[in-house]
Amino acid sequence: VVSLHDDRRLVRRIQQGDRRAFEEFVDSYGSRIHALVRRNVENASDGEDVTQEIFVDLYRSIGSFRGEAALGTWVYRVAMNHCLKHRQRTRPACLPYDEALDAEEDWRADPMRSAARQELSDQVRVALDGLSALHRDVVILHELHGLTYQEVADVLEVPVGTVKSRLSNAFRRLRESLGGYVLGQGTALGPEALGEVSR
Amino acid sequence: MSVCTKYSDDLKALVDGELPIARRWVVERHVAACEPCRDEVAAMRQIGDGLRLQPLEPLDAALRARILAAIPDRAPESARRPIPRRFSLALAGSAVAIALLIFVFRPAHDEFMDRAGAPGPASAPLPRSVTFSPVTPKAGDSKPVADSNHSEPVSPAMAAPPSDVFRKRSIPPPAVTMRTETRAAVVNKPEARESEVVRHDNQPAARTSGARSDITLFDSHSRSQPEWEARKMPASISRFGANLAAAEQKSETQKALDKKVETPALQAQNGPAQPTVAAGRIVHQQDRSKESLGKVADKDSLATQSGAGGNLGIGAAPAGAAGMAGFGGAGGGGGFGGGRPDASVAAQRGSAPPAEAGRRTNVNGQLALGAQMSPLSTLYGRDAGIHPSSSGKTALLKLDVENLEQKRGEVAQITRAANGTVTAVSGEQRRDNYSLDYAASKTPEETELLLEVDAAKMTGVLDKLSRLGDVTVRQVPAPAQAKVQDLANRNQDSNYRFRAPLQERAEAGTAGSTRGETQLRQEMTRSFGDSREQSRLKTGAALGRGLAPGAVATITLVLREKKDRRPAAAAKPAQEPMKK
To answer: How far apart are CA A180 and CA A177, in angstroms?
Structure first.
């Protein structure tokens, strides 16, 4: 996590045309932004195109970044705008299941726990894809990308209260969708099986 | 399993640690005692963990290379210059200003000193080139001001001296100050007039006090000004040059008005110095064409009086010197080479208690000085400045309000997303005036913003703006006028269909008694059910459709303070607004 001071310095260097600084910027935000894009874009090649567009746009417009908001918030906002534009262009009914995002963990150490986690992850992802776009965006930004409520509100240009209520509703729906997979009602996903992730 | 909905909306925030302390304490206590809520919290944690199980993959090397290859070689557009360079520019401008001042004033000053203090006939009249009075001497008048009788008016031209004085740069502007001092001496010691002049001129302290007296003079006069008058900006910044030219021709009105301030001037000599921000406003009252000039002089005299002089070092110059620097226009004063208005800020700190006045003077000073961009940019952002309006007939003060209050920041974002701008007009101000309240007031109850947006995007803009305040469409491109008329016709038609029959029935004494009327009323309610604001929005939406891209619509947005203030949003590059 880069500090605010580092962010400002990085931005200043990019604004001065330092390409090395922009490489650092891409290294810092590339994976996160690409993951966000992949959540919103149907196929992998489109996702790469959109990610590239985002970074080119970020580069072009970073001159207007004044540091009033956190750099990450601004980056996410630009990325979300691109994703929304893409979404409007393509309007997929539902995001497909994406194998590429699957976790590759060493299941040999604890096959049962690994299987349980994988199952939960898959189920949660399917449930997440079943959410409306409004709810999904909030969940992705907050849960997957670790943005605070305030940052999510800034990115999505909605009040913090809206973020809060959307998250609350989204989790309510996720719980309904997951049914027996939560609260130990599913045999494979008992608290003991999830002990590691709950830590 | 039972379900508890008491704090259902707060449970997720509790899990995320996003609840305020007081609320968290309440919800935690409830959760501790409520089993359904405990289950809910546990489920939320579990789902959250499940979500976070998905790892973040590093960026593919090929994609990284692709991104970097797509980046243009040149530096990002509109990159702002680093601050140190700006400072250095300001310093350079200040140095040039100081050099200019010294260059301009030194010869006249030396000449005056030579004439007044050098051996020779002490009673010899001073040449006109060193006449103290900023009032243009009458033709054939060979007497210096110090020799004039005391009924001659003291000119307030400290605030607005005739520009030929400055053009020639042969008459030192501190004349008012010195003359005032001299006059008092002459009253008591007529034969010592010249020496008094010399003595005062040789004493910087006396000069400073003289400057203070002058400010008091104008201040005492300005107290009679209405509050709105004192707040007003120059009537038209775009006419600044014209004002300057107009002020060069001293009118009879000006002369007559000059006489009126004699009494306050004499009072000012005896009274304590009480400089205020509004000092110099008298010029505004005397002759509107000199409004801008008066303010410049006012500001500069304040700067001198406060001894601050800002980073220009004006405090070291004679009182009138600052005024002259201000009138330099192209390169003088705080706007020098696009420098920062620190001088006026310093002056405000030294003499004006209200914090908001500082900002006001900043803007005021910058505009009066006719600087192009920088000071406003410093205050309100990179894009701030004076731009011609879409019609090209008027100049509008366009402020990038992102640096101001949060809500206004949202407006700026919305308009920017629509390729638009925000032009500040507030309260009673009209297009040819410039509101300082907008910039100065921290929490005005109501602020009116004039927005210019891409007409093609007006519908979306209006929709978003309506969440922030009342919106009215003030000016739209010509093709849309027909739609406005059409809507008005339809409203009239509705009025005719519903209200007229009702009125007839009321007049006939049958109102409220028939089933038909009830139906009519219901219909009318449906027709007029929308609030006025909604109607306005519909009007705007109707206008927004079918307009040629690139057409500019002018919208008035009235912002009123709401309880639920939204947070400041981040900067956003120009692109399509998000639609949710």
So the answer is: 9
Say whether residue A7 is in contact with chain B using an 8 A CB cutoff: no
Q: Count Cβ atoms below 10 Å from residue A12 Cβ, excluding itself.
A: 18
Residue of A36, A34, A27, A31 whose CA lies nearest to A51: A34
Of all residues in chain A, the one with the smallest CA distance to B79 is: A63
Both tokens of B463, joined, read 């929709």
Pairing of strands B446-454, B421-424: antiparallel
Residue B365 near residue B341 (C-beta atoms within 8 A): yes
- What is the H or E stretch that residue B556 is in? strand B552-560
Residue pair B153/B261 in contact by the 8 Å Cβ criterion? yes
Q: Which residues pair with B397 in a beta bridge?
A: B386
Q: What is the ipTM of this complex?
A: 0.72
At B289, which amino acid appears?
A: S
A169-188 residues touching B, CB cutoff 8 A: 171-172, 174-175, 178, 181-183
Nearest to A156 by CA among B249, B377, B579: B579
Query: Alpha-carbon distance B341 to B362, whole Å?
Result: 6
Q: What would the 3-class secondary structure string for A115-179 be?
A: HHHHHHHHHHHHHHHCCCHHHHHHHHHHHHCCCCHHHHHHHHCCCHHHHHHHHHHHHHHHHHHHH
Q: Is the pTM of this model over 0.90?
A: no
User: Which of helix, strand or coil describes residue B471?
Assistant: strand
Q: Rounded to whole angstroms, how far apart are CA atoms B395 and B372?
A: 13
A chain contacts of residue B40, beta-carbon cutoff 8 Å: 175
State whether residue B528 is helix, strand or coil.
helix
| Chain Cα centroid distance, residue B185 | 43
Interface of A with B in 61-120 (CB under 8 A): 61-66, 68-70, 73-74, 77-78, 80-81, 84-85, 88, 101, 103, 117, 120
B230-283: pLDDT as tens digits: 333 333 333 333 333 343 343 444 444 444 433 333 333 443 433 333 222 222
Q: CA torsion angle for B426, B430, B431, B435 (degrees, to 10)?
A: -40
Residue B83 in tokens: 């601050």
Q: How far is CA B127 from CA A161, B103, B136, B146, B155, in A?
A: 76, 20, 13, 12, 20
pLDDT in tens, B360-397: 222 222 222 222 223 333 333 333 333 434 443 333 33
